[in-house]
Amino acid sequence: MQTHFSPEQLTDERLATADAILRTCVHCGMCTSTCPTYVTLGDELDSPRGRIYLMKDMFENERPATKEVVQHLDRCLSCLSCMTTCPSSVDYMHLVDLGRQHIEETYKRPLVDRWTRKLLAALIPYHRRFGLAMKLGWLARPFRALAPTARMRAMLELVPQHLPQHEPTDRPGVYEAEAEAQYRVAMLPGCAQRALAPSINAATLRVLQRHGCQVTYPDVGCCGSLRHHMGQDALDEARAMVDAIWAMTSAGGGAGLDAFVINASGCGTTVKDYGHMLADDPDYADKAAAVADLAKDVTEWLETIGLRAARPDAAGLRVTYHSACSMQHGQQIKTPPITLLKRAGFTVSQPRDGHLCCGSAGTYNILQPEIADRLLARKVETLAETVPQIIVAGNIGCISQIGRGLSGTGNNAPIIHTAELLDWATGGPAPAALEGVL
Ligand code: SF4
Ligand code: SF4
């Protein structure tokens, strides 16, 4: 694609980056057919190519973001399905990051929108605050049909039906391997997941310990993914995470680290991008790139170290694997979760059109509830076609969203995290959600 930035404009690092990305697009339109918003809404401006044109025009003319640009970029899920499809390797992820940054800086959103975003950014990344908000939401949940706005209703619908039990291992510390330690790893504690489903971290910890890992559960907060996804500055969170993990590496003066294990693929995508996010910070660029290199999704790491023999009663259970967008498109992790599940003996299916998002996408299901609901309905239908006994996914956003979609559909298959099922299959306790299935 031809661009028309002046030499002066190209001295601006942001515009130079946008220019380099825009030039790689040959406007072939192949990405449109796999873009969930284009497939759902049928509007070229809600396709990757349409959004690229909108951003090109905005950047070239150094115009403040208009209402139209904001509407179409807000509707983008950042699912990155377009990047998987694009034959020219257009770096849409970093282009839309620049577009969202520009919106934050130049566009004044309506008051309610501004406050909703502020509220989400002030609650979700802090697991204690979020846990408290969830308890209040649980009390209000039965009255969600009376909620005055679709966004408020969407928030209440995402509150779990049963509040989760506290897990005793949900505290910072070093957890020894079950037998002799062969690996030393750190585990991302996370934020929203820690409040919504603490059983996921507990299962991940057990499965790692069982596979010869000494696990450090650091005292750190959010990785910055949520704010970054909304176009807000998340560099302080990224720096704090880099500091915490770097201090455990031998180069950082620690005992050394074989991997930084992450069990929420949305977070994994962000942490793996730290090298890019902090590239311009001379104090952090190298450390951030090193931490990003250490980051591994839990399934990637288990695939590397090898899954131990599974219990015989796992054999034959019908499991449908939902691949989160951040897993398959963001991190390009496609086979490890399926290989591990098959190795454990499960009969594994994947839904039709598995490349299309379930509508979760960070806070998308709250901020764009109508589109998110349409995507969810499609996802629930395609999952049902596989007649699963159990559904698994590697991202808490998808687990909450699909769990909400399944309730009341007559499809009784529970959805849990892949690590929870692998924990049970290799000797851990049965996940509470699987009562009646196992
Ligand atoms: S597929 Fe890639 S090159 Fe083609 S229009 Fe989409 S982003 Fe541009
Ligand atoms: S990130 Fe997803 S929703 Fe956004 S343009 Fe690409 S395919 Fe469409």
Report on the structure:
- The protein has about 450 residues and is α/β, with parallel strands linked by helices.
- The chain has four domains: about 10-105, Orthogonal Bundle (Fumarate Reductase Iron-sulfur Protein, Chain B, domain 2); about 110-155, no CATH class; about 175-305; about 310-435, Rossmann fold, CATH 3.40.50.
- Helix content is about 50%, strand content about 10%.
- It contains 23 helices and nine strands.
- It has helices at about 15-25, 35-40, 50-60, 65-75, 80-85, 90-105, 110-125, 125-140, 150-155, 190-195, 200-210, 225-230, 235-245, 265-270, 275, 285-295, 300-305, 325-330, 335-345, 365, 370-385, 395-405, 420-425; strands at about 175, 185, 215, 260, 295, 320, 345-350, 390-395, 415.
- The strands form two sheets. A five-stranded mixed β-sheet has the order 1-3-2-4-5. A four-stranded parallel β-sheet has the order 7-6-8-9, with helices on both faces.
- α22 (about 395-405) links the parallel β8 and β9.
- The radius of gyration is 21 Å and the shape is globular.
- The termini are far apart.
- The model has no long low-confidence stretch (mean pLDDT about 95).
- One iron/sulfur cluster binds near residues 25, 29 and 49.
Mind summarizing the main beta sheet? 5 strands, mixed
Question: What proportion of the residues is helical, as a percent range?
Answer: 40-55%
Give the rounded overall mean pLDDT: 96
Structural class of the helix and strand makeup? alpha/beta
Oligomer designation: single chain
What separation lies between the terminal Cα atoms? 55 Å
What is the number of helices? 23
Silhouette: globular
Question: Beta fraction of the residues?
Answer: 5-15%
Please give the order of strands in the largest beta sheet: 1-3-2-4-5
> Please, how many domains?
4
**Backbone CA Rg:** 21 Å
Which consecutive residue ranges, at least 5 long each, have pLDDT under 50? none
Please report the total strand number as a whole number: 9
The bound ligands are: iron/sulfur cluster
